[in-house]
Amino acid sequence: MKRRVVVTGLGALTPLGNSVEESWEGAIAGRSGIGPITKFDSSSFSSKIAGELKNFDPQQYVDKKEIRRYDDFAIYALAASEMAMADAALTINNEFSSRAGVIIGSAIGGVSTIESEIRVLIKSGPRKISPFAVPAILANLAAGHVSIRFGAKGPINCAVTACAAGTSAIGDAYKTIAYGDADIMITGGVEAAISPLAVGGFCAMRALSVRNNEPQKASRPFDKDRNGFVIGEGCGIIILEELSFALKRGARVYAEVAGYGCTSDAFHMAAPPPGHEGAARSMQVAIQDAGLQPTDIDYINAHGTSTPLNDLYETQAIKSLFGDHTKKLMVSSTKSMTGHMLGATGGVEAIFAIKALHQGIIPPTINLDNPDPECDLDYVPKVARHKKINIAMSNTFGFGGVNAVLVLKKYRD
Hints:
Layout: E1 5-13, H1 20-28, E2 35-36, E3 49-50, H2 64-67, H3 72-88, E4 100-105, H4 111-124, H5 133-137, H6 141-150, E5 156-157, H7 165-178, E6 184-191, H8 196-204, E7 234-242, H9 243-248, E8 255-264, H10 277-289, E9 299-301, H11 308-322, E10 330-332, H12 335-338, H13 345-359, E11 361-362, E12 385-386, E13 391-398, E14 402-409
Parallel strand pairs: 4-5, 4-6, 9-10, 9-13
Antiparallel strand pairs: 1-7, 1-8, 2-3, 6-7, 8-14, 11-12, 13-14
Helix pairs in contact: 3-6, 7-13, 10-11
């Protein structure tokens, strides 16, 4: 029998703010976190906009002497984990350290370090490469640094499933607790890929929005005039605990993780198939894992990337699974405000779904000015909606055909 798994702590860095509170307030206010790229000279790039973190001070979380040894994605993970652990009022001690683990997903890992060290190699030769380069690059080092800082000696892993990485990590962490291999998991997703290589690569694929003159209106999921996603960065970390362990220590419970579904399209390395059968199947698997029916779902935080194919095919997948219940579903894409944070998106959007359950507020899809006639669901357009809900779903899909879905429930004894 599966053990019950609950959420007791939240931590986030997003283009909307450097905390869960700032990010959530920005989301329900319908504020955009998109602006011109400042991290490098983007003048020669077709897309010159991104969802960057603003006024983030790494010295709050990492010693000044150590910052140069870490890639930004690891620093973001440490920062959001510090917030989540503090929010959960949790300290891992020797009594249960072996029952506390870490799974943090990242699509790319230390891409900025790769770029900087290649420049060093070309200019000065191999002897000048930093001895800290390889540890800074490796995607699993976000989880590694977090486990070291908090003394979590249990299961450790890293999901590298493209834009589904954060959700994959949370789903795997949920199952790690549900099936008895840990009592506590620090989990989520992180990304720091606003770099010339990543942005240039997506530009070459013509995947990014080129609405450079109106950055705050560029991410427009389900809108007829959408022309690509806006790259973002950040981190979303949640603390998961086995229910009786959490209650015994008097933890506050935000929500319950009830189900997880993961499927493959087996279709194309970068494009979803028409109708997105794999997405529909991952939603169905997650609902079945939760012991629920499609009619039980109240709200979906959609993948909703603002690309022509994803938004259409995700809409089709939702319709094919939910049938008549589709008319009662609320669906929104918070990427309209944060941009697409790649591997971090699953962690941040799970937090938004948890906050929607906890507070009874559904974040909107902004910039939905000219709805695509083929995208005809209730996308909670432009303005947040006050509505009490019991069950929420968070969808994430990634390159390679991976589909990962979480089902979250309002906690009840």
